[in-house]
């Protein structure tokens, strides 16, 4: 039986591929759970320093939650629907958001609903020129459930986010770039090479420093500036006694390339 999420390790990069192309890589419960399981495995692997997430096939990154599956949960009652669908999806996007290793979405096609929410939650994203985005949950009578009502306004601003959330309109990669949803737009054939290039530009630095930056930004962005600065100081203090700091400073003084060991 073929896996609904493919895992490939390329050097220090883990490539995850949503693998339900016949369903436009819709996020059924098994796919969601497999993503969480793979992230646990990747976090524990010291050889991996970054993650790239993309979709199988030529049409979709992910069309969002599996409507047929969560419809059955809704029919069984509110408590089950919240537990099985909403909380599961929120755990997944929260895991991506706070993951200590940089996660890059390579958005190769449709990114609707939960697929868009994954893009919102990961640290970095590159879109192909063929990518198309939407917050279409309102079309089936529900609000977004994987964090879209919270992360998109923080990325794009309240009014621009509300327009997308309340209309369900589709938008293209250049609009996603303007909104801050993606970092870059490239031709389709350049998508994965661009994602791997971005990963390699990050991996030349200390993995510990990258983790501290991710933590400071993720925890601090929703606090006051004073609280955020305290978080920043805490993350700096955690780095001060590491070998990576000593290596970085010694290399800078000696004008040589640092060799980080992640400790």
Question: Can you tell me about this structure?
Answer:
Helix 1 links the parallel strand 2 and strand 3. A six-stranded mixed β-sheet has the order 1-2-3-5-7-10, sandwiched between helices. A four-stranded mixed β-sheet has the order 4-6-8-9. The chain is an alpha/beta fold and 263 residues long. Helix content is 51%, strand content 16%. Helix 5 packs across helix 6. It contains eleven helices and ten strands.
From the alpha-carbon coordinates, what is the Rg to the nearest angstrom? Answer: 19 Å
The average pLDDT value, as a whole number, equals: 95
The major sheet is characterized as: 6 strands, mixed
> How far is the first residue's CA from the last residue's CA?
39 Å
Widest sheet: strand ordering:
1-2-3-5-7-10
Provide a concise account of the structure shown.
The chain is of the alpha/beta class and 263 residues long. It contains 11 helices and 10 strands.
Write the layout of secondary structure elements.
Layout (H helix, E strand, L loop, with lengths): L4 E6 L2 E6 L10 H16 L5 E6 L4 E3 L4 H9 L2 H21 L4 E5 L2 E3 L1 H8 L2 E5 L3 E3 L13 H9 L1 H10 L2 E2 L1 H7 L4 E3 L4 H13 L3 H14 L4 H16 L2 H12 L9
Parallel strand pairs: 2-3, 3-5, 4-6, 5-7, 6-8, 7-10
Antiparallel strand pairs: 1-2, 8-9
């Amino acid at each position: 039986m073929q896996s609904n999420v493919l895992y490939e390790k390329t050097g220090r990069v883990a490539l995850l591929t949503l693998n339900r192309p016949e369903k436009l890589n819709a996020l059924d419960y098994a796919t969601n759970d497999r993503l969480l399981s793979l992230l646990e495995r990747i976090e524990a692997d010291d050889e991996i320093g970054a993650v790239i997430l993309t979709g199988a096939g030529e049409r979709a990154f992910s069309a969002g939650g599996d409507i047929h599956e969560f419809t059955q949960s809704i029919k069984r009652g509110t408590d089950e629907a919240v537990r099985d669908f909403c909380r599961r999806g929120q755990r997944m996007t929260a895991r991506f958001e706070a993951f200590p290793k940089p996660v890059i979405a390579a958005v190769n096609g449709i990114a609707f609903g939960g697929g868009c929410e994954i893009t919102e939650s990961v640290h970095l994203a590159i879109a192909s020129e063929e990518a198309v985005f939407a917050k279409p949950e309102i079309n089936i009578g529900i609000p977004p459930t994987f964090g879209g009502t919270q992360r998109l306004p923080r990325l794009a601003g309240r009014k621009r986010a509300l327009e997308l959330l309340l209309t369900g309109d589709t938008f293209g990669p250049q609009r996603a770039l303007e909104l801050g949803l993606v970092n870059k737009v490239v031709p389709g054939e350049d998508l994965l090479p661009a994602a791997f290039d971005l990963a390699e530009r990050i991996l030349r630095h200390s993995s510990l420093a990258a983790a501290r930056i991710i933590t400071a930004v993720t925890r601090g962005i929703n606090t006051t500036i004073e609280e955020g600065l305290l978080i920043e100081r805490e993350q700096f203090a955690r780095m001060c006694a590491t070998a990576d700091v000593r290596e970085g400073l010694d290399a800078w003084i000696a004008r040589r390339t640092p060799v980080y060991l992640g400790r």
